[in-house]
Amino acid sequence: MIALVSLYIIIVLRIYYLERVNVTFQRENGIGGASVPLKPGSSSQVPRTSLGCASALLHYYVAASLIWNVLIFWRRRRRRVAMLIGITSLAAIISLRFSGEYCKTSSGEWANSNAFIARSEGSASWSDYSPKQTMDDNIRISFRLHDPDDVAYPDKFAGVVGYKCADKADLPPSLSKRTILNFTTTIATDLKLLFLGDSIAEQFAQAFDAAVLGNGFERNRLAQTYTNGPNNINVHNCLTIAAPIRGGGVSAFWRVVTLMSMSTRTPFYVCEHRWKTWNEKQAHVFVNHRYVDHVKEVRPANELNTTTLGESNLQGDYSVGAFDAIVLRVPHGWLKIKQITKERIVEAINLANELVGAQTVIISTLPLNNNVLTPSDWDGISKINHMIRDIARSWEATQPGKVRWLLVQEFGNFTNQILRMNAEQLLMTNSSTPDFSQEGWELKDADFLLKRLSSETFWFPSICMVCAERTYAHINEKKNEVQDCIRSKISRDGAHWCTETLGPRYSASVACLLGCVYNGNEPSINAQDVEMVRQCEKKCNDQFMSILPVDKEW
Predict the structure, then answer these.
(1) pLDDT recorded at residue 73
(2) Burial status of residue 35 (CB atoms within 10 A of its CB: 0-12, 13-18, 19 or more)
(3) Largest CA distance in the chain
(4) Spatial contact of 279 and 352, defined as CB atoms under 8 Å apart
(5) Among 21, 161, 439, 546, which is least packed, fewest CB within 10 Å?
(6) Are the CB atoms for 100 and 56 separated by under 8 Å?
């Protein structure tokens, strides 16, 4: 019996030691139990938090066993032994209470935690692009934030001259701080990602590619393109694929300017600006694409035509296969507000899953653009965004292989905050800065959003979207007086966005959201894990799809 008590005491002390080491490590490195993206980690190694949870359960078992033995020895009148065991069991419970709390979510529920990490200092995954390398199986996507003097703004793949903003006027003080819209992002991942949508999705896919392809690795990216503009100065992407990227993963873009459905499918596809349909052969290009280790690969150029992209499938050591995740933008502009319905969005998500196999989808809420002309239009955009959130909240994985996780990226809320602060700088609104956390804030006192710049007759952009200073009278080529302004680094045309400014937060938010699912222990489709993922989703949006300053320690 003495041996049994000694064994119990050794187990308790051992568990206590392991818990203290694990908790100390997490606290020192900013790692929380329930996916907390607001603080960076500082180590290349992340402990499995499931070990802590398993230890906690064993801890409870040992404590309960000891208490049971207290009752047995007390009844046998061996009270000294009973008191010794009782003190040991009490110590076990106390140590669990104060060292094991990290095993819970913020709501106090037990969770299989998705520990989130933003840094990967010195790890093989950060410096290695080879698909042969294996990232930490507990952290499949990570990112770092940088000073733009150290890492350039993400415009190296931007091919349309009219979208670039480096030469435009600086942002207002409320937006130009280093921790708000003046940093850059780099990403490492072994995930296979597909960006799906129109030219705005293309812009941010290019920014993401810049975040995952460091200097010297640009040739890992293939593109199917078309050109337009004077002397074909603008280069647009229809299909792109970058493989391998930093961490060994894949990043791809598929231009589809409609919501995919069987009614918008055609037997063939042409890479042209006005082409509004799609074909599954495009998906086959991605899934069947073969590539080799970047060390071995030799390519003549970064921009490649359709034939070359197709021929690249014929050789290579690695095949892309099924994708892990899709980042979907609903192509408002190409589609009218009334054409964007719940049924069409759900069909597009399921069809994309069937074509490329992705079981996680991030869908972005819609921002203001030049097609929003009336208060009714703006209200319609708000309703679509509510619909997107409702679809995500009610999503259920019906069958194996189907979409398991549908996450919302609050891109609309992010851009609305930027436009509101710029409007205040332009003295376009007299009301105080709203509480951005309040639902529907963007619909109140929103008339300034609809004031248009009359000097631009093609897009008719919103003044707060394209102007860095207040408007001034100007006589145009037709001898008419119009309002013009010095242009900003928010948008060039009122439809597209300056990815030099918005791209780093966008890319960080994608990495953060995917970390909610793929970092740590894979969540299950049960109420507890779903709630945990939703809490993580909210924290990612609160931090990166907003103008909330990021921590200077990033």
Answers:
(1) 61
(2) buried
(3) 108
(4) no
(5) 439
(6) yes
